[in-house]
Amino acid sequence: xxQGVLGAxxxxxxxxxxxxxxxxxxxxxxxxxxxxxxxxxxxxFVLARLGVMPGTTALWGSSPGAATAMTLMxxxxxxxxxxxxxxxxxRVLCVAISATVxxxxxxxxxxxxxxxxxxxxxxxxxxxxxxxxxxxAIARRLHRPAAQLMLPLILCVALQDTGMLVIALPSWLLIVxxxxxxxxIGLRFTPAIVRHAAKSMPFVLLAIGCLMAVSGIMAAILVxxxxxxxxxxxxxxxxxxxxxxxxxxxxxxxxxxxxxxxxQTVRFVLVLFTGPGLARLFARWLx
Length: 287
Known about the structure:
There is one protein chain. The protein is an all-alpha fold. It has one domain. It contains 13 helices and no strands. Helix 3 (27-49) packs antiparallel against helix 10 (191-225) and helix 5 runs antiparallel to helix 6. It is globular. The model is unreliable at 109-116 (pLDDT under 50). One of its GO terms (cellular component) is membrane. This is Membrane protein. InterPro entries: AbrB_dup (IPR017516), AbrB_fam (IPR007820). It comes from Tanticharoenia sakaeratensis NBRC 103193.
């Protein structure tokens, strides 16, 4: 059920406004999205080739999508979710720190808040929970990888965009869901996994630094050709940590919030749906 809540959370930001922004911005926008994905994939491939991380774990750990979603999906496609979680949240931390520093240097703080889904009415909450429960129940019968995440996501997106559902996810529900997911991942860590993570830390941090540098290059290109502010471009191309980026973007009035969230969301969706195929391709390359 917790995975279903995460799916609904992701669905809450996949609105028609995102598609409108994508079509409005044009090819360079999509190039920026793909540029970061390709760079992350190459980073994962190098880590796997060097033996820093095993097999597809390197790919899922390097994927610039939502950290929790990537961690959960990795197990279904042959990755070690414990090491993926380590890689994902190490990158989120690095991105959060760098984005905060850059925002202080280039931006001007303002009061702002970002929420995923509304607290909404009790009716909206009940409807959301029912859709999630139905999606999870069907997913359990399908026995497909990551179905408990993906099916509620697809159902919520479809119903939301047709106006049949207002996704309501109050903070207490998200806290419960993330706590359950966190326990599920954290309790699987063993001393051997912790030692492996510690040993690989320098290589992982180097890979994160390279990915952030590549993202910075893409940000510079966007500043030059899309005529967005440097802070907008930097936040839009930051590899992961969408929630953190959204909060920072909302606190800076000179940031184009729709541009930032559109690029972050589109990149995440592409990673979400191409990840399984890339994982299988990775497995063949590394065999």
